[in-house]
Amino acid sequence: MRSDPTRTAIDGREIGMYRLMEKVGGKFLGLFVPEVEAAASANACRWKYFSSCWQCGYGACDAYCCDGAGCSTIVCY
């Protein structure tokens, strides 16, 4: 007789095993699939401050950067 995963076991062992498999499987999958922020997929852009920029002779700068696309505008101080 095959077990139905939607059925609730009287003693809870069967449900506990499914939860354990789900938890372990999620952690295992996380080792191979990188997490991605929602903003990164939309190429979110914002101004960022850097205390040392090679473009400014290693002085401070603000740069307008888009996730995954680099920085397009740099303002040196």
Largest sheet: 3 strands, antiparallel
Instruction: Work out the count of structural domains.
Output: 2
Give helix % range: 25-40%
- Rg calc: 24 Å
Commentary on this structure:
This protein has 77 residues and is of the alpha+beta class. It folds into 2 domains: 1-36; 43-76, no CATH class. Helices cover 31% and strands 31% of the residues. It contains 2 helices and 3 strands. It has helices at 13-32, 38-41; strands at 45-53, 59-66, 70-76. A 3-stranded antiparallel beta sheet has the order 1-2-3, with no helix packed on it. A hairpin with a 3-residue loop joins strand 2 and strand 3 (70-76). The protein starts with 12 loop residues before the first helix and ends with a strand. 1% of the residues are buried. The model has no long low-confidence stretch (mean pLDDT 75).
